[in-house]
Design brief:
- By secondary structure, this protein is of the alpha/beta class.
- The protein folds into two domains: 1-97 and 272-351, Isopropylmalate Dehydrogenase, CATH 3.40.718; 112-254, 3-Layer(aba) Sandwich (Isopropylmalate Dehydrogenase).
- The chain is 41% helix and 19% strand.
- Helix 1 packs across helix 9 and helix 1 crosses helix 10 (308-325).
- The mean pLDDT is 97.
- The chain binds 3-isopropylmalic acid and manganese (II) ion.
- Manganese (II) ion binds at residues 244, 248.
Length: 351
């Protein structure tokens, strides 16, 4: 029996989450597991109506869940940063979800903007550190609002935080069992403190994994190679900020935000799964947004919970839909509605 928190959030979040839940239901029938949903309506509308962002009591409850499924956070009437920091980042930090796992996989039938590359070339995973770096909020202003203003935003990198992330990445690379290559994405030529620590930790730990090729590349070069030679990559490990940036690039080469999903993982605790795109407010309520990213988030959640076989079935069902059904991943151009796409995936999972 899994206790799953569901936080649909803002904009199109509820529409895509609804489809992910359909697929979860189908998966539970096929794999014979039981689950209970706990619904949370945190997001922009609730904040605007009540001033509440994410109460401590909810965070306490989160600790007792088996996993959380998130839709999208971000509301056009709320100043950017309030909900992102107050809901999404707070949950990642409070639940110590120190891994952000983001597969970049081009499915058959999906358009990639990269000429002459196909599904056999674009299939790698980014392991993004998720609780440190530039995201801790360390820093501040001096003389704010004056001509002498100073703004400092520091990147926090602890040996422990970096090590646990790198170790996870090596273990993940071993289990993935493709090229068995782990690439550290850094910037050792300029960030000579932060990435010096990362690099030392990386090669220290690499000694324990002699079956894995440990490789290094600067973040700017990686951005170039994602486009030019995506087939070079198997697993990439990087800090929070670089991971944020390169996974948007990754999402684009795998077909866009309509398909990219990720997991905020605490291997010893409660993890949260989400489509990595935003709340797409302009499409809200139109039933035209692509739910496949949210469905893939549910797939990652089930994989994480140990339901590996049915997770594979969900992926196969998604591939059936991308390769045989929808015309495009773009909102309004799928040739089907949001709910029809969800229905098709659920049906293929049941078959
Ligand atoms: C992501 C998002 C978040 C991040 C934002 C919404 C705070 O871009 O999950 O990649 O920067 O981590
Ligand atoms: Mn991002």
């Amino acid at each position: 029996m899994y206790k799953i928190g569901v936080m649909p959030g803002d904009g199109t979040g509820p529409e895509v989450t609804r489809e992910a839940l359909k697929v979860l239901e189908a998966a539970s029938e096929v794999a014979n597991f039981k689950y209970e949903l706990v619904h949370y309506d945190f997001g922009g509308d609730r904040y605007l109506a009540t001033g509440e962002i994410l109460p401590d009591s909810a965070v306490e409850e989160f600790h007792k869940l088996d996993a959380i499924l998130l839709g999208a956070i971000g509301h056009p009437d709320v100043k950017p940063g309030i909900l992102e920091k107050g809901i999404l980042l707070r949950t990642r930090f409070e639940l110590d979800q120190y891994i952000n796992l983001r597969p970049v996989k081009l499915y058959p039938g999906v358009y990639t903007p990269i000429k002459d590359k196909g599904p056999e070339d674009i299939d790698f995973v980014v392991v993004r550190e998720n609780t440190e770096g530039l995201y801790t909020g360390a820093g501040g202003f001096l003389k704010k609002g004056t001509p002498d203003e100073v703004a400092v935003q520091e990147s926090i990198n602890t040996r422990k935080g970096v090590e646990r992330c790198i170790r996870y990445a090596f273990d993940y690379t071993r289990e993935r069992n493709e090229d068995k290559k782990l690439t550290l994405c850094g910037k050792t030529n300029v960030l000579t403190y932060a990435f010096d620590l990362w690099e030392r930790a990386f090669y220290d730990i690499a000694e324990e994994y002699s079956d894995i090729t440990a490789d290094y590349a600067h973040v700017d070069a990686i951005s170039m190679w994602f486009v030019k030679n995506p087939e070079w990559f198997d697993v990439i490990v990087t800090d929070n900020m670089f991971g944020d940036i390169i996974t948007d690039l990754g999402a684009m080469i795998q077909g866009g935000m309509g398909i990219a999903a990720g997991g905020n993982i605490n291997p010893e605790g409660v993890s949260m799964f989400e489509p990595i795109g935003g709340s797409a407010p302009k499409y809200t309520g139109m039933n035209i947004i692509n739910p496949l990213a949210a469905i893939s988030a549910a797939q990652l959640m089930l994989e994480h919970l140990g339901q590996k076989e049915v997770a594979k079935k969900i992926e196969a069902a998604v591939i059936k839909v991308t390769s045989e059904k929808i015309k495009s991943l773009a909102a309004g151009q799928m040739g089907y509605s949001t709910s029809e796409v969800g229905n098709m995936v659920a049906e293929f999972v049941r078959k």
